[in-house]
Amino acid sequence: MRSRRAPIARLSSKSSKISKPTGSALQPGPDPDLIRIGQIGGTHGLRGGLKFRPDDPDSTSLASLKRIFIGRDGSPVEYRLAEVVRLNPRYMRIMLEGLTDVTAAEKLRGAEVFAARSDLPELAPGEFYYFEAVGCEVRTTDGRIIGHIESAFFSGAHDVWVVKADGAEFLIPVIEDVVRSIDLDARLVTIEPIPGLLE
């Protein structure tokens, strides 16, 4: 399986091999066609600039998008991107068409930012986005059911799946030594637990 840093990391499915992941997953948004990519941290400047904190701090893919969706409480609004500038390792400054003053920008503080699935880069054959694995059942190679993937995040070294079942939570590193196969059609991930992983 392969991954690369994008707004969403991606791996090739139905493979027994996986290279060292370098990206982090985005989570499904309030609309099935929207994928969360980050959050508005505050304003920047007096002309309506926004400080955007991406869920994947190393991603440069926001610059390839022409529009984003911003909102809270399940009601994001579409905005056209006018400018994207990296401020520091954690934040970017974004300028939106029609948003030109700090008062209006301040109203978006804390709101979530989403991208449309249709705007995401096309995948190569056999690849899929990490968010598509959310909901997959996770089993060990000896058939033990661990739970279902609820979310994912980047740990700083590799991606991690959050797997939950019956009140228990397991953090599964998405690395070759652990993840043995992924079958999206069957909604099944098979892992080989390393010592201490499921304790």
A few lines on this structure:
The protein has 199 residues and is mainly beta. It is 3% helix and 42% strand.
Tell me the layout of helices and strands:
Elements: E1 10-12, E2 34-44, E3 49-54, E4 67-71, E5 77-86, E6 92-96, H1 102-106, E7 112-116, E8 127-129, E9 137-140, E10 145-154, E11 159-165, E12 168-173, E13 179-183, E14 188-191
Parallel strand pairs: 9-14
Antiparallel strand pairs: 1-8, 2-3, 2-7, 3-6, 4-5, 4-7, 5-6, 9-10, 10-11, 11-12, 13-14
Plain-language structure description:
- The chain is an all-beta fold.
- The chain folds into two domains: 10-25 and 126-191, Roll (SH3 type barrels), CATH 2.30.30.240; 34-119, Beta Barrel (Elongation Factor Tu (Ef-tu), domain 3), CATH 2.40.30.
- 3% of the residues lie in helices and 42% in strands.
- The chain is built from one helix and 14 strands; from the N terminus they run E-E-E-E-E-E-H-E-E-E-E-E-E-E-E.
- It has one helix at 102-106; strands at residues 10-12, 34-44, 49-54, 67-71, 77-86, 92-96, 112-116, 127-129, 137-140, 145-154, 159-165, 168-173, 179-183, 188-191.
- The strands form three sheets. Strands 2-3-6-5-4-7 form a six-stranded antiparallel beta barrel. Strands 12-11-10-9-14-13 form a six-stranded mixed sheet, with no helix packed on it.
- Strand 5 (77-86) and strand 6 (92-96) form a beta hairpin.
- The two termini are 27 Å apart.
- The model is unreliable at 1-28 (pLDDT under 50).
Stated plainly, the CATH topology of the largest domain is called: Elongation Factor Tu (Ef-tu), domain 3
CATH class of the largest domain: Mainly Beta
Query: What is the CATH superfamily classification of the largest domain?
Result: RimM
Terminal Cα separation, in Å? Answer: 27 Å
Strand proportion, as a percent range, falls in 35-45%
Helical content class: under 10%
What can be said about the biggest beta sheet? Answer: 6 strands, antiparallel, barrel
Number of domains: 2
Across the major sheet, the strand order is 2-3-6-5-4-7
The string of secondary-structure elements, in order, is: EEEEEEHEEEEEEEE
Count helical runs: 1
